[in-house]
């Protein structure tokens, strides 16, 4: 697996595309002319739409491309660049872009917020163009009916802000990073700190608009329940271009409680004992309470030059401080939560704090959620696992020792239970419901741009992942689509496309993979909408 295998996948792939690409223009400038002509014609525009089509020679091209790159690993001179970037301003531009890309026989990648951990929205091994949705970012909030329509190119921060502008007691259950895009996030499931009370983002979607492979703009009624099911967690990029979601807003109290508590292996209550108890409490406690647990190897406070593991509990409680202190005093005494550890804030301030726990102290305002300019450009690797049986104290001791040995990579435990246990595993493509205690994220972020550093940290991720095998779900070893991880399998769209798709598909979707394949085969039999981990078409019985 891994490095060598990915290289061989690319090599095979190139052979395949060479023969079929005779008809496809592979240079940026020849494609530009024909694509622009097609798009202008398709959209019946009176002037050429050169303002929304960027060729590589356009001086703005690097900026447009880089604006929504959120992983520095895919921001190098070696990274494959799209032949064109199309930035639709209207729904019918999206329709035209699909029709013209198909006519030109060139692959499209769809980008909304660009947070894909493996860069799948703007990198490809075959010649491709990017349909970049950042201009389609309108949000309409209807507080009377408690619904909102949000376009794919909007960010979570913008959504939270627009809800807060109109109501202080409504919110939406989605991710905690404000720059994440709606298009990728919601079509991949979407979870955040209200998951135990309200489920995933997809559990609160009531309609959607999608442009299909024929260029039709469809809504729930016209796309039908099968396709509407598939795009709520199956990944949008396999089925079409999602233009908007209609979502149900959820009630939030005027004041919520947030807190953060830390322990190490050197504190009186050790991180090990804390995590043993956390596993009993976090997935079973009051569903208004979400306690994320972060585990990180850090320098020792006691032994000079020594290393320890720090466990941090970061929480949101949809209620008051007295109540959560009382609940946890009984259920989670090892946490030792005191009222002084808690802050009662508005829901929107809790969003700011979850993004950056210094934010409120530094006078952070809800307007920060509208900021799209991310100055930091880090290198990221993420992986995921699901835990169904609590890990013993002995197991945790071994894991902590391993983490110290491996180096930098950390783990994030996100508790399930509550609402997550009540929703059937086939209600949406996202299957990881009842029986899962928590989801684990492997997380390593670095700044050193040298290839050696990248190799080293990718290797750390593989080592820890391998070590965790006995402690996590098996047959299949499950994973979360939005924590995109190419190590678990990739597709080269060749002869074995279906078999390859089954490898990663069964991990992301378990028993729902089969239905996703059926929907895919029905709506996009030629596999026009594809990426390295898209849903494959069922092979025809020849
Ligand atoms: C800093 C950070 C924090 C995160 N926090 C969370 C979190 O709290 N909870 C959580 O659940 N996830 C989280 N994620 C993961 C995130 O949900 C996924 O990366 C998600 O897919 C990002 O959506 P995007 O539109 O920003 O990404 P993109 O890179 O634009 O897209 C991701 C995938 O979706 C496809 N896609 C995008 N837009 C469309 C569209 N309009 N139609 C069809 N397909 C489309 C792309 O082709 C690509 O395959 C986080 C990621 C990062 C980098
Ligand atoms: C990408 O590289 C450019 C310089 O080449 C830099 O300005 C930008 O911040 C980088 N973005 C990311 C996400 O690494
Ligand atoms: C830790 O335990 C020691 C010995 O029992 C005690 O003296 C000390 O006050 C404790 N420290 C804290 C922070 O509770």
Task: Give a verbal description of the structure.
- Residues 1-23 form the signal peptide.
- One of its GO terms (molecular function) is oxidoreductase activity.
- This protein has helices at residues 3-20, 28-42, 61-67, 91-103, 156-166, 182-187, 195-198, 220-223, 225-230, 271-281, 321-331, 347-355, 393-406, 451-467, 497-509, 513-523, and strands at 53-55, 84-86, 107-111, 128-132, 139-142, 147-151, 170-171, 205-211, 217-218, 241-248, 250-251, 256-264, 289-299, 307-317, 342-345, 379-387, 410-415, 438-446.
- It is α+β, with helices and mostly antiparallel strands.
- The protein has four domains: 2-132, 2-Layer Sandwich (Uridine Diphospho-n-acetylenolpyruvylglucosamine Reductase, domain 2); 139-251, Uridine Diphospho-n-acetylenolpyruvylglucosamine Reductase, domain 3; 256-345 and 378-471, Vanillyl-alcohol Oxidase, Chain A, domain 3, CATH 3.40.462; 489-542, no CATH class.
- The strands form four sheets. It has a seven-stranded antiparallel β-sheet. Strands 5-6-10-8-9 form a five-stranded antiparallel β-sheet. Strands 1-2-4-3 form a four-stranded mixed β-sheet, sandwiched between helices.
- The model is unreliable at 1-24 (pLDDT under 50).
- The chain binds flavin-adenine dinucleotide and 2-acetamido-2-deoxy-beta-D-glucopyranose (2 copies).
Features:
about 550 residues, alpha+beta, Uridine Diphospho-n-acetylenolpyruvylglucosamine Reductase, domain 2, Uridine Diphospho-n-acetylenolpyruvylglucosamine Reductase, domain 3, Vanillyl-alcohol Oxidase, Chain A, domain 3, five-stranded antiparallel β-sheet, 18 strands, binds flavin-adenine dinucleotide, binds 2-acetamido-2-deoxy-beta-D-glucopyranose, FAD-bd_PCMH-like_sf, oxidoreductase activity, flavoprotein, FAD binding, Oxid_FAD_bind_N
């Amino acid at each position: 697996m891994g490095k060598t295998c990915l290289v061989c996948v690319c090599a095979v792939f190139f052979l395949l595309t060479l023969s079929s690409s005779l008809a496809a223009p592979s240079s940026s400038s020849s494609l530009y002319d024909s694509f622009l002509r097609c798009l202008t014609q398709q959209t019946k525009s009176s002037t050429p739409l050169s303002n929304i089509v960027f060729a590589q020679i356009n001086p703005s091209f690097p900026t447009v491309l880089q604006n929504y790159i959120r992983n520095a690993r895919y921001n190098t001179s070696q990274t494959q660049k799209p032949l064109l970037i199309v930035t639709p301003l209207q729904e019918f531009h999206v329709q035209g872009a699909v029709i013209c890309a198909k006519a030109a026989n060139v692959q499209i990648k769809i980008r909304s917020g660009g947070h894909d951990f493996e860069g799948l929205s703007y990198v490809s091994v075959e010649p491709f163009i990017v349909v970049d949705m950042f201009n389609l970012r309108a949000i309409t909030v209807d507080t009377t009916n408690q619904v909102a329509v949000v376009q794919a190119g909007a960010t979570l921060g913008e959504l939270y802000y627009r809800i807060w502008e109109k109501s202080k007691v409504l919110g939406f259950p989605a991710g905690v990073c404000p720059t994440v895009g709606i298009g990728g996030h919601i079509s991949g499931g979407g979870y955040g700190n209200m998951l135990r009370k309200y489920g995933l983002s997809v559990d609160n979607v009531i309609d959607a608009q999608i442009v299909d492979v024929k260029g039709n703009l469809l809504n729930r009624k016209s796309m039908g329940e099968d396709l509407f099911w598939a795009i709520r967690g199956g990944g949008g990029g396999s089925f079409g271009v999602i233009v908007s979601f209609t979502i149900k807003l959820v009630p939030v109290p005027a004041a919520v409680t947030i807190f953060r508590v830390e322990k190490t292996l050197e504190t009186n209550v050790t991180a090990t004992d804390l995590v043993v108890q956390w596993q009993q409490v976090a997935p079973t406690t009051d569903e208004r309470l979400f306690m994320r647990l972060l585990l990180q190897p850090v320098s020792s406070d006691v032994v000079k030059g020594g290393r320890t593991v720090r466990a941090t509990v970061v929480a949101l409680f949809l209620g008051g401080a007295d109540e959560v202190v009382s609940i946890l005093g009984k259920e989670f005494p090892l946490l030792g939560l005191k009222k002084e550890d808690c802050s009662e804030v508005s829901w929107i301030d809790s969003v700011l704090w979850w993004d950056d726990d210094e934010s409120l102290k530094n006078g952070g305002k809800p307007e920060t959620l509208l900021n799209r300019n991310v100055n930091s450009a880090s290198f990221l690797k993420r992986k995921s696992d699901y835990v169904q049986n609590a890990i013993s104290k002995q197991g945790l001791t071994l894991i902590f020792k391993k983490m110290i040995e491996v180096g930098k990579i950390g783990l994030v435990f996100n508790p399930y239970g509550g609402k997550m246990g009540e929703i059937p595993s086939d209600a949406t493509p996202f299957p990881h419901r009842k029986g899962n205690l928590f989801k684990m994220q492997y997380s390593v972020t670095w700044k050193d741009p040298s290839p050696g550093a990248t190799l080293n940290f990718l290797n750390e991720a593989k080592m820890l992942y391998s070590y965790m095998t006995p402690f996590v779900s098996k047959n299949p070893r499950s994973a979360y689509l939005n924590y995109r991880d190419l190590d678990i399998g990739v597709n080269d769209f060749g002869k074995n496309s279906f078999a390859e798709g089954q490898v990663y598909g069964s991990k992301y979707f378990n028993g729902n993979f089969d239905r996703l394949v059926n929907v895919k085969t029905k709506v996009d039999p030629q596999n026009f909408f594809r990426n390295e981990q898209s849903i494959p078409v069922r092979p025809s019985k020849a």
